[in-house]
Amino acid sequence: MAELILTKRMLERPHDAHTLEGYEASGGYLALRQVLADMTPEQVHAEVKTSGLRGRGGAGFPAGVKWGFVPADSFPRYLVINGDEGEPGTFKDRMLMERDPHQLVEGVIISCFALQAEHAFIYCRGEMDLAYRHLCDAVAAAEAAGYLGRGILGSDFDCRITVHRAAGAYICGEETALLESLEGLRGWPRMRPPFPAVAGLYAKPTVVNNVETISNVPHIAARGGAWYASMGTEKSTGTRLFCLSGHVNRPGNYEIELGTTFRELFDRWGKGIRDGNELKAFVPGGASAPWFDASSVDLPLDMDVVQQHGSMLGSGAVMVMDHTTDIVRAAWRLVKFFAHESCGQCTPCREGTDWLEEIMERLLDGRGRPSDIGLLIDVSDNISPGLTWPPAQTTICPLGPSATAPIASTIRLFPGDYERLVAGNEDLEPAESTGPAGPERTVAVTIGTKPDREAVAHG
Amino acid sequence: MAAEVFTGELLEQARAKVAEYPEPRSALLPLLHMLQEQAGYVTTGGMREVAALVGVTPAEVYGTATFYTMFKLEPIGRHLVSVCTSLSCQILGADELYARLRDHYGVADRETTADGEFTFEEVECAAACGGAPCLQIDYRFFEFVKADEVVDLVEDVRRRGLDAVHAERGSVLAPLPPLEAAEIAAGITPEHKWTPPAEDDA
Lengths: 459, 202
Ligand SMILES: Cc1cc2nc3c(=O)[nH]c(=O)nc-3n(C[C@H](O)[C@H](O)[C@H](O)COP(=O)(O)O)c2cc1C
Ligand code: SF4
Description:
The structure holds two protein chains of two kinds. By secondary structure, chain A is of the alpha/beta class. Chain A has three domains: 8-229, Rossmann fold (3-Layer(aba) Sandwich); 239-322, Ubiquitin-like (UB roll), CATH 3.10.20.600; 327-428, de novo design (two linked rop proteins) (Up-down Bundle). Chain A has helices at 8-12, 20-25, 30-38, 41-51, 63-67, 92-99, 101-115, 129-144, 175-182, 211-215, 217-223, 225-229, 262-269, 303-308, 327-341, 347-364, 372-383, 399-413, 415-422, 439-446, 453-456; strands at 78-83, 119-124, 160-165, 206-210, 239-246, 252-257, 279-283, 292-293, 317-322. In chain A, the strands form two sheets. In chain A, strands 6-5-9-7-8 form a five-stranded mixed sheet, with helices on both faces. A four-stranded parallel sheet of chain A has the order 3-2-1-4, sandwiched between helices. In chain A, a hairpin with a 5-residue loop joins strand 5 (239-246) and strand 6. In chain A, helix 3 (30-38) packs across helix 11 and helix 15 runs antiparallel to helix 18 (399-413). Chain A is globular and about 80 Å long. In chain A, 58% of the residues are buried. In chain B, helix 1 runs antiparallel to helix 2 and helix 3 crosses helix 4 (58-65). The longest helix of chain B has 13 residues, at 8-20. Chains A and B meet through helix 1, helix 3, helix 6, helix 8 and strand 3 of A and helix 2, helix 5 and helix 9 of B. Iron/sulfur cluster binds next to helix 16 and helix 18 of chain A.
């Protein structure tokens, strides 16, 4: 069993892990002292590279590699922490920010040192009132103790942190939307390139990293990249927080070495499916991830293996559904989420997600037409051509394509659940050429070819 | 037009906020939060003041404010009850929970009770799925809420105030990883206690 890295302190000192006293009493800020006394920015960067640490915000990009994209001679540069956690099923960053904010703050300072950035921003989800206050308190305490500010701990390194409170918009978790939001604008994702590492906040080089990603940095700096890489699998190193929720007996955040199986996560940590029920489906990595059925429980929690099997570990949100679950209703709920959160810039996403939601609603209301199943696939295919994995993108950001994941995967895995809803509804089928005027007609016209469900919805 | 919201101490705070950022415009969201805290919602006059403070037009402030669900453009009740109905909450009964509230108070989504006490809203994932179904009252978390108890919970807030009720019935801090002592003893926590890094092992 691997050791706990991120959650150790909060488990050992549940009452004061979030205070400076509690943090320092359990080894806090020693890594920063060590870095400033003995290491160069390049050395810290090298340790992070060696650690294999991959982003925990969803995409799993290696942090050390991303840091390397910052142009060598371009200043100022910024580090922005993504604490907007809003992916349905994810609740780990809130715990890290509320329970161990200094761990993040120390990680930010060390990362800024490595990046030679003097100003960092922590973009904290607006609804997380307590997390915001704990972060503000932590930054103020760190300043008072000399860990932030000018000439930190007698070195010539200056660094400050601004905690920024967001205001409710899931799309602002997408890194370029986040930067727009941080600039005081609507959270509209930007076209790439340029990537934020080259031109991000105020068009300056900017590294955006997730809360959990950076919370690992003090440990890597103190104990070395090789130590971190010795845990987990070859390409998914270290531990990871998995947010287990849904129909398990013991939901919660579990810090687990990568490579453990879903079965172990459900049975050992989640203490099995509630009421002794059978597992029907699970979402392996947040709302944007295609679903799995019970036949996939022996897959390891390994980013690449899950990717090869047509889904992703994403943000670490694992949502479990037992055999009593209304699968179509559950999938509809996520589609509704995407429709609500679409920022509206791209036509396929703005229009497509709304239509998907409405067609799903029609199915659930008993007004579904037998052709609706093909229509769902067709609309999805228009948002993300081919419905491949990873999804093809016709849009500025991946939100639109993500909305197709719950639909395409559940139609593939549970076709009977959809067919049951439309059985006997042949009479609701609109006549070939006399559909009603208005929006409904518009979609009917776009059907054109009805793709073969098996071929298209392979998730 | 004379400023009505950002005066005195609040004006000082707003100016300090603006100064924290390399570009003033970045303080737009923080200032809108201040405005909403002060005025109860994002008022038109307040938005004009924010515009002047960060150096953009009132239309730009309005354009930004309307993008974010937390900013309310009309007055709301004394308490905001936000019920999460996202997937993990939904499959554990959130729809029923929210229906009980709406039925009891005779309000629709995003409506306020006649006495002005509570506004109810359905929200997307509140990041408390481990405690589903969950809700927030004025952004304080309540987890594992039961449909049978939800009206009583809200009424309790009316009777005793949010602080008392949250301390007793809410999640004061995000729940810890739910490990049992035996599991921790069995090696889930590290065998090695944290040892401060030695001076020279960089
Ligand atoms: C629609 C959308 C929402 C996202 N939401 C979040 C989020 O809430 N938190 C997060 O850390 N990353 C989120 N991401 C990923 C970020 O764009 C970005 O990849 C990440 O913050 C980078 O940090 P990392 O490399 O440390 O993971 C989201 C991406 C998309 C497309
Ligand atoms: S894909 Fe959707 S959310 Fe993303 S930029 Fe386009 S419209 Fe906005």
